[in-house]
Specification:
Elements lengths: L2 H106 L2 H18 L17 H24 L3
Helix pairs in contact: 1-3
Length: 172
């Protein structure tokens, strides 16, 4: 091979070597960018997972509070209703007892004496009786409807997010 050809081959080798170095540098930069994207992605995934864990915690607290409020409302409503039911049952038992006594006396007494005693008893009972009525009650389910508590939860989330954001900007 002649000197001109050797120079041409050396020039080609030098050019390819330079080109190879540039491409290797490019390869290294591309690998670094891929690594950066993977790290960024992992960081984002961790942050999103953490934020959803916080949201879940807020939702669980809110759910427990709402369930507690429902139970409290139920107890407030049922207590007087159950007391009223007890009064109704006591009154019913009293009437059944009086009815049984009356039927027993009717069999044993003459009718004129029985009617006189019954007139006196009716006057006494009308003075003693108190009016019974049904008690009504219902839990206000509007208070626990989806839009109501969802707005409350979203407000809590915004406040919690703001506090976390403030803490990150001004750590103690």
């Amino acid at each position: 091979m002649g000197p001109a050809r050797q120079d041409q081959v050396k020039s080609s080798i030098q050019s390819l070597t330079t080109n190879k170095s540039a491409i290797q540098e490019m390869e290294e930069q591309q690998k670094q960018k891929i690594t950066q994207v993977r790290e960024q992605s992992q960081s984002l995934k961790s942050r999103v997972t953490s934020q959803f864990a916080e949201l879940h915690q807020i939702l669980v607290k809110k759910e427990q509070r709402i369930l507690g409020e429902i139970k409290e409302d139920e107890e407030k409503i049922l207590s007087p209703m159950e007391k009223n039911l007890q009064d109704i049952q006591e009154n019913l038992n009293s009437i059944e007892e009086k009815l049984s006594n009356l039927k027993g006396r009717m069999k044993q007494t003459d009718i004129v004496l029985f009617l006189k005693e019954e007139a006196v008893r009716k006057r006494r009972i009308s003075d003693e009786e108190h009016t019974l009525s049904l008690r009504d009650g219902a839990i206000l389910d509007e208070k626990f409807d989806h839009p109501y508590w969802l707005n409350a939860v979203l407000k809590d989330i915004v406040v919690a997010n703001h506090q976390v954001h403030q803490h990150k900007q001004h750590p103690d």
